Amino acid sequence: GAGVSQSPSNKVTEKGKDVELRCDPISGHTALYWYRQSLGQGLEFLIYFQGNSAPDKSGLPSDRFSAERTGGSVSTLTIQRTQQEDSAVYLCASSSFGDSTYEQYFGPGTRLTVT
Amino acid sequence: AQKITQTQPGMFVQEKEAVTLDCTYDTSDQSYGLFWYKQPSSGEMIFLIYQGSYDEQNATEGRYSLNFQKARKSANLVISASQLGDSAMYFCAMEVTGGGNKLTFGTGTQLKVEL
Fold first, then answer.
1. Which residues of chain B are within 8 Å of residue A59 when distances are taken between CB atoms?
2. Within an 8 Å CB–CB cutoff, is residue A104 touching chain B?
3. A48/B93 CB distance under 8 A
4. What gap in Å lies between CA B5 and CA B50, rounded to an integer?
5. What are the pLDDT digits (tens) for A63-115?
6. Is residue B17 within 8 Å of residue B82, measured between CB atoms?
């Protein structure tokens, strides 16, 4: 079946502009995660949604970052007033708590470049 | 807080040889899971193998095995019979059960398989 999809695949924006990144999880997956991968680094957790529970926002680096998940499916990560240090690949993952290993399935990522 | 340490920024191995990628972790939780992901140059994150903290046997998946030494808090990945297609970045990650299953990643090991 279809995997996790993200759009756009690449985004170049000017410093100070707002950007929205979209994630379509695997159908039926109740958990959705956003991670950030800066150049040459490992992944950094940003935010986690599980069903109708309040999201875990503990990884968001500043109040310029926010995310929502509509209808328990599609999620949008918004970065306001972008800064050059926001340049990174933003990865979305989804998982089903019915799986014994809680494997997270990752999307291809959105490469954000702030000029 | 959890921490994952991967001390090998880069590794080389000859085709058909076995290679071990090191991973140590730090957590005060008793119930947790350990993952290895592969990230080729194309950027996607590919799940390789999972080990639960209460699993008594080391996990194996094809040519991948996880050498889990709980007392030493290590979870090394062993790749047997290396192939050219194994050249990629490898990330060790950890999740705490009940902590939302968000993953904490190490900084990765770049593996290059040579003829």
1. 102
2. yes
3. no
4. 17
5. 999 999 988 799 999 999 999 999 999 999 999 865 555 688 999 999 999 99
6. yes
Distances in whole angstroms, Cα of residue B40 to Cα of each of A54, B96, B100, B112: 34, 26, 27, 11
Give the pair of three-digit tokens for residue A88: 């990174």
Q: Which residues of A33-47 are buried (b: 16+ CB within 10 A; e: fewer)?
A: bbbbbeeeebbbbbb
Q: Is B110 in a helix, a strand, or coil?
A: strand
**Does A8 sit behind a cis peptide bond, omega within 30 degrees of 0 on the bond before it?**
yes
Q: Helix, strand or coil for residue B86?
A: helix
Identify the residue among B25, B48, B102 best suited for mutation to test binding to A, counting A beta carbons within 10 A and taking the highest.
B102
Contact A26, A94 (CB under 8 A): yes
